[in-house]
Amino acid sequence: MKRVGFLTSGGDCQSLNATMRGVAKTLYQKYPEIEVYGILDGYKGLIYGNYRMLQLSDFSGILTIGGTILGTSRQPFKLMEEPDENGLDKVKAMIDHYYEWELDCLVVLGGNGTHKTANLLKEKGLNVVTLPKTIDNDIWGTDMTFGFQSAVNLATAAIDCIHTTAASHGRVFIVEVMGHKVGWLTLHAGIAGGADIILIPEIPYDIDSVVKTIQRRTDMGKRFSILAVAEGAISKHDAKLSKKELKKKLKDNPHPSVSYKIGAEIEEKTGQEVRITVPGHTQRGGIPSAYDRVISSRLGAAAAELIIQRQFGYMVAIRNNDVVPVPLGDVAGRLKMVDPNSEIIRQAKSMGIGFGNDE
Ligand code: F6P
After folding, report:
1. Which of 178, 229, 257, 258 most suits a substitution to test ligand 1, by most atoms within 8 Å of the C-beta?
2. DSSP 139
3. CB atoms within 10 A of CB 22
């Protein structure tokens, strides 16, 4: 094992550097002379040949630093096999650079789209090992992704702050949490922050049910209600539309996001004042949580162990608290969604949390 390339791809998160540190420290223990190519800005660097050589010292002091020392970018998988604006064959360019740089392995940190491309490169014969990154926690095959718990902490802190002001003013507050396709972050932050209503894409909501939960709280003498709403939350009506119809509807939508639509409907139906808070990308920023630093270190070390054993074509995953390899072909193209019938949803409902579908 002489030379490995690292790349971070897709939306960033707090624990990317901590994870690369885990891989690098373990590799350098075994191979002090190993050469590490830091490929810049995700697959873009692999396509266009941009990298910088990294030393062991580059991985010191980065455990607590959010973002990625390599930079990242979104290179949609669906466009990977299409030539770029200058006619460049991107997949071929990536393969050519891998061989030109004489890499023994490519270490890829990323989410769902990243895993589809990683699997494609594996199928083309490259040695690839991947690590599951995303604040969304939606990668199939792993119980937990690194970045998720840090984001849960931040989204929860946002809801905590809203609690005091909501209570003072007696208003309805909506906190819009990241997650277009899945509701893990909203669900966990919503429960941790004591939200009264949680709306996630996996459980399409009925606005009348949302309003009933708010009315019930008002009737109980509660001065405020807090909703944790995933950015991808969808109404029962919209969930029945075809992709094309939904796209058109969203295009014509006067509201900047689903929370504003829900807020306007609540104001109209209850007469209560509504305020919206969108923490947005703050949820991906700052320092990684202690939990994330631990799983990043473990996943990083486990990925390095796979490389040392020359076991390629796997993502390292957390399953029942163990770190296990999962074949890339199993991961690519599959989403891990919240099961509406799962225990966590049932328990949240039994505490009285509304999901917009239960009254
Ligand atoms: O995948 C992580 C994520 O933060 C999602 O929760 C969010 O929908 C999306 O990325 C935002 O993407 P971008 O940073 O490209 O705006």
Report:
1. 178
2. B
3. 27
